[in-house]
């Protein structure tokens, strides 16, 4: 079966976040998809099957299936428009995170995603110990969000991933601060799913954009994830939904050989 790797939220290869994309004629077993994700060893491998007028989309990390993923959705939309439905300008997906779309607008791929609200949360000594810094604020939704005092602190952070794994709360840990060149910067850590740092995390911005909308009173922002690879996201706050855009670069096209398929 065909297997693609796309660098999402990237102007060129070796930037952004690499996602695996498998376009299937029929579903594989959950166990096989999980094994493929482990074998690929990327933060997410996306699996998609044509259903009615759109596609069913699922995302697997090396540590298990996840309910929302931005960069692998962008990557899948890019692959479908480039190689499967070449005349399409919009792809509709049905996912565990609800109905999502990817629309091509020039050299950007715009996604319509849910807006995730968070609530203030209590800072603990364990959090300070794991991060190695004292956050200014803490918020919680599905994940934990830590506001840090500066862009430099976000850049230089060296958290203890084993200690983050022990947090009883939050699937992932996000750190963010007001940016200099960009509206805000961030980093994303998922050690509970065997991904210490996600290079560019789209789903994180479903929580960060509503947060920064309240802080900056802006509906349109440009954000930068300041991981080693780095990536840029163009964001619009629309209340219950957000628009999230980025570029994509094709890294590889390959074939996977498995007996089940």
Automatic annotation (TrEMBL):
InterPro entries: Phenazine_PhzF-like (IPR003719)
Superkingdom of source: Bacteria
Pfam entry (one): PhzC-PhzF
Gene3D superfamilies per record: Diaminopimelate Epimerase, Chain A, domain 1
Alphabetical UniProt keywords: Isomerase
Keyword presence, Isomerase: yes
GO CC terms, sorted: cytoplasm
Active site: 44
GO molecular function: isomerase activity
PANTHER family membership: PHENAZINE BIOSYNTHESIS PROTEIN (PTHR13774), PHENAZINE BIOSYNTHESIS-LIKE DOMAIN-CONTAINING PROTEIN (PTHR13774:SF17)
Family note: Belongs to the PhzF family.
Listed name of the protein: Phenazine biosynthesis protein PhzF family
Species, as recorded: Clostridium polyendosporum
